[in-house]
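Researcher: I'm preparing a figure for a lab meeting and need a structural model of a single chain. I don't have an experimental structure, so a prediction will have to do for now. The sequence is pasted below. Please return the structure as tokens so I can convert it later.
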Amino acid sequence: MKIFFTIAICLLSLSTIAQDVKIIPVDFNTTQTSMRGLSAVDSNVVWVSGIKGVVMRRIDSTRWNIHEDEHWSHLDFRDIHAFSDKEAIIMSSGDGCDMYKTIDGGKKWTLVFKNYMKGVFFNGMDFWDNQSGIAFSDPIDGKFFIIHTTNGGKSWNIIKDIQIPKNLENEAGFAASGTGITCVGDSTVYIGTGGGAVSRVFVSHNRGKNWTVVDTPMKKGEASGIYSLVFVDEKNGVAVGGSYKDSTITEGNCVITTDGGLTWEPSKNAPQGYKSCVAVSSKGVLVACGRMGVDVSYDKGLTWKHVSDEAYYSCVLNTPTGGWLTGRDGKMAQLVFVD
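Model: Understood. Here is the structure written out token by token.
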């Protein structure tokens, strides 16, 4: 059965990480869930998802709801997309995929997609608007397995007539934070890859029906490549990643584009080490996080400033002045930009 309860946030000692960034740890004292799914609607509404079927929802500035379901204890919700304080979709990763949707703040969840075909491993989803979205799995028969929705995630369909280049040997996506796929504008979508002889970006300008693919100078090979990507605007984008096996490697962990993804170049100076997520604020500030800490860029990813050694899986910037970070064993923090 589902358990609902409300808890108060206990803020630990506020530590100033850098002159222009503060990270405020949050202690829930009730869950050791590792959390990779993170989505924000506005400055108040934030949803989080993780292993053992745990989903959390921010109620106000001091309280969160934790939703647990014993039937979900085997599921790892690597991605979540929130539409409002009441409506959200969660996606599990692993061998097979379950997707659930709620429209009442998590009191009831409806199964909207289920697929346990051999080889299915979903990495992430994103939406162009409140109705149209897309999600992708690792390759099936040599090509990415892609589904889409046109009714806000109430139902999902396989894009059967997809025109997409074949994947390279061992090439796939990464489910590190659910942000290896990003929707831009009205119909464009990007997918970052790794694991193969080249780390690439797949691009579609018609909501996933036709695709092209571009090579990038991101680190290549086993467990290496693009783990997350985001666009500041329709031309300027940033992809981060590196090597999951050696998190200390900085070379090839961040590439940028200034022409809408046609070409990608390394950052002038990269963030520190492997990064699993990158997010952008409404003011164009970028934050990247991973095992080696948190880095910030104020120039569209060209240069980066290391602001914390604390490890986090995911980040989201839901206000002009900051956002949230989530990580392992219930680790969570609020990030604040200081003028």
